[in-house]
Automatic annotation (TrEMBL):
InterPro entries: ACAD10_11_N, AGP_Transferase, Aminoglycoside_PTrfase, Kinase-like_dom_sf. Residues 35-256 form the Aminoglycoside phosphotransferase domain. Gene3D superfamilies: 3.90.1200.10, Phosphorylase Kinase, domain 1. It comes from Actinocorallia aurantiaca. This is Phosphotransferase family protein. It holds the Pfam family APH. It comes from the Bacteria.
């Protein structure tokens, strides 16, 4: 979902070359890609210097998706998880000075591989449609195993990802955060999101288990694959602490969205919801609890994110101010279906 490109490639290359002096002595930025449009949230710059390929992630400013970008936290999480042996990109430097690229940024190694596409959804087009059903099944399972490895991580040393400003760890915090996010995201109303929030508050279960590290944006579209194997786990903007069911629900919900949004059945090879839950229980070593609740929570979260994207479309004059997109879109359509299933 693009935003207008406002960056001068020549100037950016010059700034990065000066900045690299002292970090990579004598290196110059030999090649720089500044896409004609970039996604909402963090901006991505791809460059080559000193014979190696790098990616600079620039913190969002006017086009930010989340109320608090938590940008420095992402850098810290990547460094910590990389040190623990997880397949996240290697990160090298963090620059807090916004005067260089207009916002803080960090630089990490470019990773090989392809991620399943969101636009168009991977159930509809792209390389995932071209591989065998057995390869798709392996892709899905590799994603589950990566998520289980994240959930198995000790949380000591990662306590800073917990958003305690919104309440105690877990569902109380999550509901307060998304209520705040909903009111921040869009100037109008999102009735289905309000309805989901009301249901979630009325039916909130007690979370008895010790909180785990959550990836947050847990889905195969945030994984780079090489020959079916994971080369990198990406996008940690939603990292937090909570119950693994929350990540699994998001993993299932976003996949369901990606085929229902285009009115197609899931591609052959992707397991059913029931098969996925059974497999994850095997990986985690315990039953999944209250998963339907977390799927409604996923619906709320996705509707709020899409409301914010719709507001940004309005802000950038990509759609008129009265466009229904912020409150009537494929995310709210699926949320309506999920609420009807309760």
């Amino acid at each position: 979902m693009p935003v207008p490109d406002q960056r001068d490639p020549a100037l950016t290359r010059e700034v990065l070359t000066r900045w690299l002096d002292g970090r990579l002595p004598g290196a110059t930025v030999e090649h720089l890609e500044t896409p004609s449009s970039s996604g909402f949230s963090a901006e991505t710059l791809i460059f080559r210097a000193g014979g190696a390929d790098y990616v600079a992630k620039v913190a969002p400013t006017g086009h930010q998706i989340f109320p608090e970008p938590r940008f420095a936290e992402q850098y810290r999480v990547l460094r910590e998880l990389r040190a623990r042996g997880l397949k996240v990109p290697e990160v090298f430097w963090y620059e807090p000075d916004p005067s260089l690229l207009g916002a803080p940024f960090f630089v990490m190694a470019a990773c090989p591989g392809l991620a399943p596409s969101d636009m168009p959804p991977y159930h509809q087009a792209g390389w995932v449609t071209e591989i065998s059903s057995a390869e798709r099944a392996a892709l899905w399972d590799n994603g589950l195993r990566a998520m289980a490895e994240i959930h198995a991580q000790p949380t000591e040393g990662l306590e800073y990802v917990d958003q305690t400003a919104y309440g105690p760890t877990g569902l109380v915090q999550r509901l307060d955060y998304y209520e705040h996010y909903l009111h921040w995201s869009y100037e109008g109303k999102v009735p289905l999101a309000e309805r989901a929030l009301e249901w979630l508050r009325a039916n909130r279960p007690e979370e008895q288990r010790t909180p785990s590290l959550l990836w947050g944006d847990s889905r195969i579209g945030n994984i780079l694959f090489v020959d079916g194997e994971i080369s990198a786990i990406l996008d940690w903007e939603m990292v937090t602490l909570g119950q693994p069911e929350e990540d699994l629900a998001w993993y299932l919900y976003l996949d369901r969205h990606h085929y229902t949004a285009v009115e197609l059945p899931p591609l052959e090879g992707f397991p059913t919801r029931e098969q996925t839950v059974e497999r994850y229980e095997e990986l985690l070593g315990r039953p999944m609890e209250n998963l339907r609740y977390y799927e409604v929570l996923s619906g709320l979260k996705f509707a709020v994110v899409m409301a914010r994207i719709g507001q940004l479309f309005i802000n950038y004059e990509l759609v008129p101010p009265d466009d229904p997109f912020p409150h009537t879109n494929t995310a709210t359509a699926l949320l309506a279906t999920v609420l009807e299933e309760l």
